[in-house]
Amino acid sequence: MALGLHFDKNGDLLISQDADNIGGRAVLRRNITTDVTIVVADRYQGKRFNGANDLTTDAKGRIYFSDARYAGEEPFELPNAVYRIDTDGKVTQLATDLFRPNGIEVSPDGKRLYVAAANFRRLPINPLGPHEDRFGITAGGVAAYDLDDNGNISNGRLIFRNDELACDGMTMDRDGNLYITQHNGNPKEPKGVITVLDPSGKTIEQIAAPEGVLTTNVGFGRGKEVDVLYLSAALPWRLYRIKTVRRGHYF
Asked: What is the mean pLDDT of residues 66-91?
């Protein structure tokens, strides 16, 4: 089972795999020309990831991903965390301060790392932590971290919070604005929206989702579709195409 998808600067498709007995709990790289797929990483310090959720890259080709359990009964070996994978395959744990990290993006200038959270307590709780969210997020939120040239983070701060809707997948335009899928995680009365934030966390737009769907992930097209936003949704499972006046960012 795959959750996050991201094309790197070489044109390879990076895949984050969840758990729930049908996911590899790993980050994969697939060459879409040769159809060769390899495991980039599936553990940290010898312990298996919980279920890689979403991922992105920076200009140097380093991979950043969130690892948090959303489903499945496999044993927990690590806390919910954010990681970096260097180009030589080394895995570094960057943060364990978000209760359940999800969407993740690097700013166009490479100086910030943004991480979304979906902290509903009704989802599987990791006994290894973190037991509380450092930023006090109860449902959804976005934290921003300063990112240095070596791919390390500092100065984490909360830039957005919503106590009703979780924050799921994210993407970014060339101006550094974040596009966040938000939903209530309620299969009986599903509600979703795309919230657009400027780099400081100010809400500058909300794109209404079709009634009765959970907005789960979002991404801009490339090439001739660089101004097209694609949205995936659940309950029912759907894919939507949204023409915009913005242009998507990718390294």
From this structure: 95
